[in-house]
Amino acid sequence: MIKFEAVSKKYGYYTALQNLNLEIPAGTLYGYLGPNGAGKTTTIKMLAGLLKPTSGCVYINGINIHEEPLRAKPMFGYVPDKPYLYDKLTADELMHFIGGIYGMSKEDIRTSSDSLFETFEITSWRNKRAEEYSQGMKQKLLIAAAFIHEPEVFVIDEPMVGLDPKNINNLKLFLKEKAKSGVTIFLSTHSLHVAEELCDRIGILNNGKLIAEGTLDELRIDAKSDGESLESLFLNLIAEEELNK
Q1: Tens digits of residue pLDDT in 227-244
Q2: How far apart are CA 17 and CA 91, in angstroms?
Q3: Pairing mode, if any, of strands 55-60 and 2-11?
Q4: Is 159 helix (H, G, I), strand (E, B) or coil?
Q5: What is the pTM of this model?
Q6: Three-state SS across 30-89?
Q7: Does domain 2-84+150-243 bear CATH number 3.40.640.10?
Q8: Cross-strand pairs, 188
């Protein structure tokens, strides 16, 4: 479960996020959408514990991420929009490094790595250094590493970066399966067709404010539009919000 309670973030006089109230139940695949500069990455960094809110609280499974980070952080996996890999480490070495941080045994790391490498088709590359990987291979490795400790919450900014159609489909199936098993997934993306196909619920952010939230059908009802695509809804809601500023 993820909960934002009256969360705001200011940088000097600039408000990047304004009074965000949002609760996402366990097992939900949640899409967080908005134009550039809307406040999505700021939200994600606060959720990951990398930024502290100016006001309000962020909870993961009822634990305040900023007051009790050592209790909260083992519960989630995180892949940022500009991830970093240790280029001189092989995939196996990276998984053992990450698993060691979470206190996993070598046997558990190996078992989890084997399964994730098979899922993401990394097995034949497991002993190669990350510097030899394509962008898509790096993205798959980062997602695999984020799941090595079986997190209850997964946060990712632009999940499909660098992936070809086959791997996009594999990742969709993987995320759906994880959500069905009870993992809460919070993803930010500009690929509206991906969010429309994948997400149980969607939040639309603009100018630091959550302007719409719900299932796709609920968003259509709120917009008084029947059968409209998410892309059309998104563009219309953003345009309407801009006019009402």
Answers
A1: 678 888 888 888 887 777
A2: 36
A3: antiparallel
A4: coil
A5: 0.92
A6: EEEECCCCCCHHHHHHHHCCCCCCCEEEEEECCEECCCCHHHHHHHEEEECCCCCCCCCC
A7: no
A8: 32, 157
